Amino acid sequence: MAVPRRTLLLAAATLVVTGVAAVVAFALGSGAGQPERPSANPEGPYVVSAIDYHFHDAHPTFPIGPDRDLVVRNVGRNVHNVTIPALGYSQDVRPGHELTIADVAEQLGAAGRYPFFCRFHRDRGMKGSIVIANA
Ligand SMILES: [Cu+2]
Questions:
Q1: Ligand 1 center to residue 122 CA distance, Å?
Q2: What are phi and psi of 123, to 5 degrees?
Q3: What pLDDT score does 111 carry?
Q4: Contact by Cβ (8 Å): 45, 69
């Protein structure tokens, strides 16, 4: 009738691993901090995900060519902001919302690296650079 001790240990270990996996899955699925890859389509928008407190894929961005929009999507839990000094642009973005900076290369005007930041969380490192490719 005795279950071998080794089998019990294995069963216990399996339960622990399953529990950890469930917690991780819950954390990943809870909405915050799920980055999206920038669009593989060079014609589509360049998408930056704002999480608490970081801009994903923006340290710096990949080079952005002409005729592309820059989209900043707030997938965090806090209100964030996009301030681009070179454009005189500053907009807040609530959780679950996004900002679109249309034709960002044309607006910035020349190839180069343009800093931007969140006005609320700049001191927490919430900043990045927009790279505009040579046309
Ligand atoms: Cu922020």
A1: 7
A2: -75, -10
A3: 96
A4: yes
